[in-house]
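Ticket reopened. Same input as before:
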Amino acid sequence: MSQQLINKLCIIGVGLIGGSLARALKKSDAVGEVVGAGRDVTHLEKAKALGVIDRFETDITLAVKGCDMVVLAVPLGAMQSIFEKISVVITDDMVITDVGSAKGSVVRAAQSAFKTLPKTLVPGHPIAGTEKSGVEASFAELYENRRIIITPLESSSDYAVSKVISMWQACGADVVETTIEHHDEVLAATSHLPHMLAFSLVDTLAKMDAKNEIFEFAAGGFRDFTRIASSDPDMWRDICLANGNALVAMIEKFSDDLQQLSKAIEKNDSVYLKDVFSRAKKARDEFCDN
Amino acid sequence: MSQQLINKLCIIGVGLIGGSLARALKKSDAVGEVVGAGRDVTHLEKAKALGVIDRFETDITLAVKGCDMVVLAVPLGAMQSIFEKISVVITDDMVITDVGSAKGSVVRAAQSAFKTLPKTLVPGHPIAGTEKSGVEASFAELYENRRIIITPLESSSDYAVSKVISMWQACGADVVETTIEHHDEVLAATSHLPHMLAFSLVDTLAKMDAKNEIFEFAAGGFRDFTRIASSDPDMWRDICLANGNALVAMIEKFSDDLQQLSKAIEKNDSVYLKDVFSRAKKARDEFCDN
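Engineering reply: fixed in the latest deploy. New output:
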């Protein structure tokens, strides 16, 4: 029997992200057994029926037992209680990572749960996903050519960092390392702020009188623009709570620029308007081709 | 020879919108001859080579001669000078419509050019398009099952209104009527405001230090969200100038709600956050299925 990258993997939270990771590792034959963990048995049974996991446990301490890799793919608000359960049974060869969209809060949760941060803990964040959620939406190709940001800690061992990198590479992903602070600032800008704008816009329109008609008059551009407003509300509440400082700072920066734009519209300042739109179009055309 | 809906059609501005209209009418055999008009001969030659138009003129007064349908598919800022040229040669059986994204400004331009609004003028606005522009991007199916808003004037004759409706129906579109004011308010909400948010966000990020890296960390949701920021800067400058009042009012309404959201994030008000995100997700899931 050939030695696999991961002998026994525990995915805590078998949704779109966790389920796709399990599928990808199985597809590339990089994992032995996959144990799913979570609170909802019906959900875990579905994941097993889909072949995403091999078996499941609802008790976290049982689920992680004997695992050489544990991935927390749960909302940010659930991280600390799971770390606390793991802390009772953690071993030196149990590598632990997560997929949370904010990293400072995950490290604070781990600090609080473990007291001393384990050498095997390496926080991570796959820049991948869709507005869909749930294991039904998971697919093995989700991480192909996508970026995974890992934020190794001072406490992280080379062995653990290397194993987490190898795991994501086995899914076809491109792994980059950065600091907690930098990750949280960049994500506030490119992900958390756009989600706030999309959620807030749809809510503003839904509160306006002619609600149904307004949405009826919306074109394809609006559909694309607001797609992220169909994301999971619990997950996004948690992200706001976890990365509040960086996010509020970005909202402020954005609001200042939007006010300037609004003033330019009021003053019929066609040069200013053309400049903003041209710079934005140029920047976007440079970084994406559709 | 069978009688066609439109004997001789003049498209002024043969880009994505005008070109797609010509293609759709030709495909459904609803038009005899299609005359393209514009300033750029190279562009018009390309439109002719693509079979979108049958011939072209750079002189508007020559282009519209003998036409029973004239469609202005030019940026809003160009409407008035074209109306002025048409006013010299307009006849009672020359139906005139436009595709401008704001309607109040088009009527003001017509009023100024014609002095007395012609009975044959029926302003319109197809709620269709992509972030692409130019005749190369045009295709016959652009209007299929899409909504066309027409805003007939008190001066518009039944004949002209009915002919404009029939033209769009021949393209497979769904035509609805509303008032100028209502059109401009609804479009400020569903189209003009989202474009401002997308342009402004991309510009804000592009001005930040780590520019390239920031865009590198952007995920698929960001690509969708900012797609409309790749739209034509000239067209959007004109829309801002044309629909400034309604747009500034919408930016203000949106900004107030965004500030509330920002305060809720600052205060860790998880109930408020969950409420906004849930309402937005529900509203969006109801009006679009992807």
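The mean pLDDT of chain A is 94. Residues 24 and 139 of chain A are 7 Å apart (CA to CA). Please confirm and we'll close it.
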